[in-house]
Amino acid sequence: MRGRAQAAMVALLGAFVPFVSPGTVALVSLRRGGFDGFYVGGWAMLPVVVLTFVDPQSLPVAFYYFCVLVVAIGGALVLRSQGIWPVSVIGLVVLSATGGLVFGLSFPGFNEQLIAEVQQIQEETRARLQEQGTELSEPITITTTLIAGFVAALVAFNGVLALVIGRWWQAMLYNPGGFREEFQQFRLGKTQSLLLFGIAAICVSRPNWFFWGMLAALPLFLVCAAIVHNRVYAKGGGLAWLILFYLLSIFQPFFLLAFSIGFTDAWVDYRRRFGPQLNNEQ
């Protein structure tokens, strides 16, 4: 926040530390706008650009990192102008989906090589398990659609995390405690919830569209996360409860439960139903 040179240096050096560069770019975009955000983002891209010149085969990695930065900037600009988290997150998801589609279309050679390697690993694993007498189900056929969806979901996850970090840093500097209250009230409207739930349910039921379903489910999962943060803080719970929630979310059954809670919150309003609003408690 002291100037472009300092922010550019942090973004450049932060490229070697997970989430620091995207979070820095998001913070600059939130506070200073799009021009400064893309300027600092250019410096954050520099190590990846150099790597691509050294090894042209790393171009897909560079494109992925570029997508993360663009998504973080886009989400930050929407949040800066609108001040509404749901619109920002849904816009971020749309940008991530676009990035995933472009990735799938732009790197056919990389996708084919990756598919071949994964299929070989599957065959070797199945052969070893069959020798042990293990009954196996049919393997999932890896396609470009699955790879593109995985990239889109990964971009969205990192973009949301960068936006959260940037907003948290901004609150620490200019509005202590503001991010906590802002995030805990994250909610989606009924139309938004229905649309995202429908897309997620259709995609998850088809193996090669699974990650596209996870992409659509991300905003609904964030609603559940906001509910958990709200109730843990209101009840005076510790950080351990939040860590437990996110660790359990790695497992699909718990993630689906969190996804369902996030969907139904548009009608049930769990924060109001199971306890007074945090603002009322204070």
Describe what is shown at a glance.
This protein has 282 residues and is mostly helical.
Please specify the SSE layout and strand pairing:
Elements: H1 4-14, H2 20-32, H3 34-54, H4 59-82, H5 85-106, H6 108-131, H7 144-174, H8 178-184, H9 190-204, H10 210-234, H11 239-248, H12 252-268, H13 270-273, H14 278-281
Salient structural properties:
single chain, globular, 282 residues, 14 helices, mainly alpha
Measured on Cα atoms, how large is the radius of gyration?
A: 20 Å
Element string (H = helix, E = strand): HHHHHHHHHHHHHH
- Mean pLDDT, to the nearest integer, reads 85
Low-confidence stretches: 277-282
* Global structural class: mainly alpha
Determine the fraction of residues in helical runs and give it as a percent range. over 70%
Subunit arrangement of the protein: single chain
Question: Which of globular, elongated, flat, extended, rod-shaped describes the shape?
Answer: globular
| Total number of beta strands | 0
Biggest sheet character? none
**Gap between N and C termini:** 32 Å
**Number of separate helices:** 14
**Beta-strand content estimate:** under 5%
